[in-house]
Design goal:
Blueprint lengths: L2 E6 L5 H10 L4 E6 L11 H17 L4 E4 L2 H14 L4 E3 L5 H7 L4 E6 L1 H5 L1 H10 L4 E6 L1 H8 L6 H16 L4 E4 L8 H8 L4 E3 L2 H15 L2
The chain binds D-glutamic acid (DGL).
Length: about 220
């Protein structure tokens, strides 16, 4: 029986875990929230690699065959190194869904909410160059969203105000797609939707990633 391990800097990656569980409730899963070291967003690349390696070791000790890096920041910093160091492990990484947003944009303006670490990464840089070269891409760091989610604050007036401060300028700039490029952010999706009020599409990759994990399991079991 395949066992799928997930890790994130904190509880954010449960957005991916929950999407996966709704798709494959029978599959055995393990989730590691590295809350002690959260956030990863502003940490140096080498530090994130070290923390990611430690998370992978723990998941392997627990018998996982597939490791989902349920964190855009950790993927940006560490996925290449991890794939090299653990050639027998199947890794699933995350990167902001710039491609579908850019392809479907009518205004030619899209916004990405993510951490600085994710924006610095090779994956984001390459994908943006490839698919969004004729698009105005507004890259916005929203570390305060990570803090809210880690504190379990995902609704209410105060949360709405914090979200509005960050999101309203994106919509006002004409962005018609807002990409949730951090696994913490789907936890705030309802509030983000309230603020956006239908003026832009919110791109949440959780379900697409869950489908990708499901397909990999099928390959793995062949
Ligand atoms: N959940 C992480 C991500 O997807 C970021 C949170 C953090 O800064 O640790 O990028």
């Amino acid at each position: 029986m395949t066992r799928v391990g997930f890790f994130d800097s904190g509880i954010g990656g449960t957005s991916i875990l929950n999407a996966f569980k709704s798709l494959c409730p029978e599959v055995d899963t393990v989730y590691i929230a590295d809350t002690e070291n959260c956030p990863y967003g502003n940490k140096p690349k080498e530090k994130i690699i070290e923390l990611s390696r430690r998370n992978v070791e723990k998941l392997l000790e627990k018998g996982c065959d597939i490791v989902v890096i349920a964190c855009n920041t950790a993927t940006a910093a560490a996925v290449d190194v991890l794939r090299e160091e653990y050639p027998d492990v199947v890794f699933v990484g995350m990167e902001p869904a710039v491609k579908p947003a850019a392809l479907n944009s009518k205004t030619g303006i899209i916004a990405v909410l993510a951490t600085q670490g994710t924006f610095n990464g090779r994956l984001y840089q390459e994908t943006s160059k490839r698919f969004a070269k004729d698009i105005t891409l507004i890259a916005t760091v929203a570390d305060e969203f990570v803090e809210l989610v880690e504190r379990g604050e995902t609704s209410g007036k105060k949360v709405e105000e914090i979200v509005r401060r960050r999101v309203e300028p994106l919509v006002a700039s004409g962005a018609d797609h807002i990409v949730l490029g951090c696994t913490h952010f789907p936890h705030l999706k309802k509030v983000i939707e309230q603020v956006v009020a239908g003026r832009a599409e919110i791109v949440d990759p959780s379900y697409a990633v869950a489908k990708r994990i499901k397909a990999l399991i099928a390959d793995f079991q062949k």
